[in-house]
Amino acid sequence: DTIDASIFAQLGLSVYDNGYLNTAVCRSSISYIDGDKGILRYRGYNIEDLAMHSSFLEVSYLLIFGDLPTADQLNMWTTRIMRHTFIHENMIDYLRSFRYDAHPMGMVTSALAAMSTFHPEANTALQGEHIYQNENMVNKQIFRCLGKVPTLAACAYRHRIGRAYNSPSNEFGYTENFLYMLDRLSENNYVPNPRLSRALDIIFILHADHELNCSTAAMRQMTSTGVDPFICLTGAASALYGPSHGGANEAALKMLEEIGSVDHIPAFIEEVKAKKRRLMGFGHRVYKSYDPRAKILKQIADEVFEIMGRNNLIDVAIELERIALSDEYFIKRNLYPNVDFYSGIIYKAMGFPTDFFPVLFCIARTAGWLAHWHEQLQNPIPIFRPKQAYEGEEPRNYVPIDERV
Ligand code: ACO
């Protein structure tokens, strides 16, 4: 259903498409969304099947290389990634130099940019044009990025709570190790709760890719310049930092806290219908039916509450959803819960501070960003150069400063 825009170039025309909402800028085989039917697939596999049967590292392999790994491939993949979880001592000093209350997402994006200087062999400008035709070189950067991002995130978390940073432990799986680095107590043989590790691992699967969202588009745009993947990830993570992208679950959580109890829901719904407010965590640009990720998150919420204790916000969320989905206003506009409706409550129940929510998203989405980087290395796109529709002044004569009025 897509017209090749080169036809416009032949006619000497260009199309005005504010925010690229109707422009396909690449061909991709990574994820597929049918917003009307509420379908999300990674490489042809339904998200529900992957969430039920797979692990985040297996899904990362699938996204990047196109197929599920064999047992040997998964073993090798996991070993390589876990070997790259350690970060350079100078990176630790760099992270320690941030203000005591630095936003963890600011620390992670800065550390991603700094990684470029720790691994200069990944820099095409220094090494010549063709290093990314070398498969080993490509894979090494993927291992590094997937391995180190959770460690950077854990350091940012420990920094914020004023505690010593923890080293990774390769005795654990990927997500378990991340939880271990957040919480390890110096003397105890701390082992993260396996059910919580699994719940977070599934949440990472759900957030791993979502075709050409804003941060992934940023990743591709940066990739088109030939810059190394750490700088590309910095651009993508910076886009994710924006409240309209990675921060919507925080807004949904704040809304549920503000509503406070199920008795206040009808009055709140009336305000939404009067267009004084938006129901945060509802509605989606692409999904015009139930976001399949939200359905899975709703089940995970039950699991997490069973372990961490029930929080009344889940009752508010469930009742709010029930009332909204039976109300003509929401039905007519195809407004259903999206991925952000339940994720904030789950993160809160797990004990994460709200400013850490986008960091969790960043860990998961790193897999998708790298899959798009990898795909684009194989099918290069010319350096992105969108057109603009100029609507400024006609040519004017320069006026010396003492003659200006
Ligand atoms: N609450 C109340 N009404 C809404 C909502 C909402 N959350 N979302 C859309 N509407 C209404 C609009 O007022 C509009 O009504 P109208 O036709 O009477 O004018 C109609 O539904 C269509 O709204 P649009 O803004 O055109 O829908 P769009 O698809 O462009 O918006 C968006 C999608 C931005 C996500 C919107 O639904 C929204 O603001 N949701 C709340 C914020 C949110 O949860 N964002 C996270 C999205 S998921 C993600 O980014 C990972």
Instruction: Return the structural class.
Output: mainly alpha
Quaternary state of this entry equals single chain
Strand order of the largest sheet: 1-2-3
Give the biggest beta sheet.
3 strands, antiparallel
Rg computed from alpha carbons, rounded to a whole number of angstroms: 23 Å
Helix tally equals: 19
The dominant shape is: globular
Residues in helix, %:
55-70%
Mean pLDDT: 93
Beta-strand content bin = under 5%
Calculate the terminal CA-CA distance, rounded to whole Å. 54 Å
How many beta-strand elements? 3
Give helix and strand order, one letter per element, not per position.
HEEEHHHHHHHHHHHHHHHHHH
Low-pLDDT regions: none
Instruction: List each distinct ligand once.
Output: acetyl coenzyme *A
Family: Belongs to the citrate synthase family.
Organism: Spizellomyces punctatus (strain DAOM BR117)
Pathway: Carbohydrate metabolism; tricarboxylic acid cycle; isocitrate from oxaloacetate: step 1/2
Keywords: Transferase, Tricarboxylic acid cycle
What is this structure, in a nutshell?
With 405 residues, the chain is an all-alpha fold. Helices cover 56% and strands 2% of the residues.
Describe this structure in words.
This protein is mainly α. Helices cover 56% and strands 2% of the residues. It has 19 helices and three strands. It has a three-stranded antiparallel sheet with strand order 1-2-3. Helix 2 packs antiparallel against helix 10, helix 4 crosses helix 8 and helix 12 packs across helix 19. The radius of gyration is 23 Å and the shape is globular. The structure holds acetyl coenzyme *A. Acetyl coenzyme *A binds next to helix 18. One of its GO terms (molecular function) is acyltransferase activity, acyl groups converted into alkyl on transfer. One of its GO terms (cellular component) is cytoplasm. Belongs to the citrate synthase family. Keywords: Transferase, Tricarboxylic acid cycle.
